[in-house]
Amino acid sequence: MTTMCGLDTGSDISQLASVLADATRAKVCVALMDGCAWTAGELAHHTQTSPQAMSSCLTRLEDARIILRIRQGRHQYVQLSDERMARVIEFLGSVTGPSDAPVTGYRQVRADQRLRYARSCYNHIAGHLGVDIAQHLEHRDLITIEDGSIRLTGNGLQWFEDEGISIPESRTAPRIKACLDWTERHFHIGGYAGSALLSYLLDQRFMEKAAPKRALHVTAAGREWFSKELDITVVDPTARA
């Protein structure tokens, strides 16, 4: 039987586990969770490894079908193979939990707070805000969350349409998926609905990509939107107790 990750046998799972057991390769996967394409040089700098070591690292990840290489003119980029692989990485993070290593230094602490509050999980919203969105949608009967799965209700489909958020239809994949948040240990919304929501918020400038990579910042207009449309009070993550 083939799993959601395209794995057919126990040996496939063993291979995936072996590849992700390496700290540098794991860091690369986490970096690619921002949904963007990176160059090998950028990843080498991010993980503080040599170009030669990064080349070997990316080959292993590509052989395991975790990443894809994309050529654009003379340049080559890499990204996660698909959203399913992103959900695997996010799920593994939720199982292992946040690092026990202490977060020290003013800038590092603030960066950690921003990532925990709102970040991109491949192409949808994760962190405290992502979970908050899912819970408010459920409270308003726009989605149902049961047994690890999320379903859009009729009211939910209408709400997305009324907001001008277009969710693509697919015969092979559900419109909305549950993604277990690794910091909050609750579900946020993924799939086409999660992707469409984040794209809408970025297009309307209700949210902006911020430092560190994957962090999402809610603008003043976005705070008004969240309050009006979802009854969510957005807070400054660096001021959280």
How is this structure best described in words?
The chain is an alpha+beta fold. The chain has two domains: about 10-80, Winged helix-like DNA-binding domain superfamily/Winged helix DNA-binding domain (Arc Repressor Mutant, subunit A), CATH 1.10.10; about 105-240, no CATH class. About 45% of the residues lie in helices and about 15% in strands. It contains ten helices and ten strands. It has a two-stranded antiparallel ribbon. A hairpin with a 2-residue loop joins strand 3 (about 120) and strand 4 (about 125). Helix 3 crosses helix 4. The protein is globular. The N and C termini lie far apart (about 45 Å). The model is unreliable at about 1-5 and about 100-105 (pLDDT under 50).
Quick structural gist:
With 241 residues, this protein is of the alpha+beta class. The chain has 10 helices and 10 strands.
Produce the secondary structure layout.
Elements lengths: L9 H11 L2 H9 L8 H8 L3 H13 L3 E6 L2 E6 L2 H14 L9 H12 L1 E3 L2 E3 H13 L3 E4 L2 E4 L1 H10 L13 E4 L6 E4 H13 L3 E4 L4 E4 L1 H11 L11
Antiparallel strand pairs: 1-2, 3-4, 5-6, 7-8, 9-10
Helix pairs in contact: 3-4
InterPro entries: ArsR-like_HTH, HTH_ArsR_DNA-bd_dom, HTH_Metal-responsive_Reg, WH-like_DNA-bd_sf, WH_DNA-bd_sf
Protein name: ArsR family transcriptional regulator
GO molecular function, one term: DNA binding
